[in-house]
Amino acid sequence: MTVSIAFSGKGGTGKTTLSGLLVKYLVSRQKTPILVVDADPNYNLNEVLGVDVQTTLGEAREKMKSGDVPSGMAKNRFMSMKVEEAVEESDDYDMVVMGQPEGQGCYCAANTLLSDFMSRLTENYAYVVMDNEAGMEHISRLTTRNIDHLLIVADPSRRGLQAASRIKQLADSLSIGARSIHLILNNVKEPPSSQLLQVVEQAGLELLGSIFEDETIHEFDLQGRPTYDLPEDNPAVKSAYALFDRIIE
């Protein structure tokens, strides 16, 4: 049975880094096979993982929508072929990038085919890890599979928590059927105060835990090094693993 975990949060909270660390965690625990889905239009999870992306599903959707399908090829066959081409394979996991958002015009037919093929694709994996932008309407459109765990990443500020609360409200209003929704406070400088925890509670959020700011992650990012290569004894990695232990059986 496939278990799906999705990350969401406003830009700059570190959700993409944490998505990569979850992949690292699952590989270290031998919980494979894993499908990694980058559903953020401004995708860069591949850089966190150190993976080269050749094509995206958004490109395939654009071609089908514009009628750029080889003569004599059925549209469902074309989309199936493009989904297969978009899957980047590695020794430990496979990855697919959604890519650009929808442009002008109707994408209903293309989205229906993508949803169908994505649902079939995910059935081949034990775990699916999704990195998303703050809005999650595209999840409800592009997959018929429910999300088992939604992890909302936020910085430890009132504004950050307000954004996290809006994401939870959006998730509750969409048909993603999340079994659990948790908040992760990232890049904290000190343990959450009682006042901050009160704000979390008032926002209707369930705190999974906190991860302290880590200079090594910043160094890796500046140097263009995949944070997937961080050593497992790194404090942020150890903290992330401890949080993942709480939701991964």
Q: Structural class per helix/strand content?
A: alpha/beta
Proportion of residues in extended strands: 15-25%
Alpha carbon gap, first and last residue = 12 Å
- Looking at the structure, what is the overall shape? globular
Strand arrangement within the widest β-sheet reads 3-4-2-5-1-6-7-8
Biggest pleated-sheet summary: 8 strands, mixed
**CATH second-level architecture:** 3-Layer(aba) Sandwich
* Uncertain stretches of 5 or more adjacent residues: none
Helix percentage: 40-55%
Q: Give me the Rg, rounded.
A: 18 Å
Q: What does the average pLDDT come to?
A: 86
Per DSSP, the total helix count is 10
At the first level of CATH, what is the class? Answer: Alpha Beta
Element-by-element helix/strand order: EHEHHHEEHEHEHEHEHH
CATH homologous superfamily title: P-loop containing nucleotide triphosphate hydrolases
Subunit organisation of the chains: single chain
Number of strands: 8
Estimate nothing, just give the exact number of structural domains. Answer: 1
The CATH topology: Rossmann fold
Give your account of this protein's structure.
- By secondary structure, the protein is of the alpha/beta class.
- The chain has a single domain, classed as 3-Layer(aba) Sandwich (Rossmann fold).
- The protein is built from 10 helices and 8 strands.
- The protein has helices spanning 15-28, 45-49, 57-65, 75-86, 108-122, 137-142, 158-173, 194-202, 215-223, 235-245, and strands at residues 3-8, 34-38, 88-89, 94-97, 127-131, 149-154, 180-188, 207-212.
- An 8-stranded mixed β-sheet has the order 3-4-2-5-1-6-7-8, with helices on both faces.
- The longest helix has 16 residues, at 158-173.
- The chain is globular.
- The two termini are 12 Å apart.
- The model has no long low-confidence stretch (mean pLDDT 86).
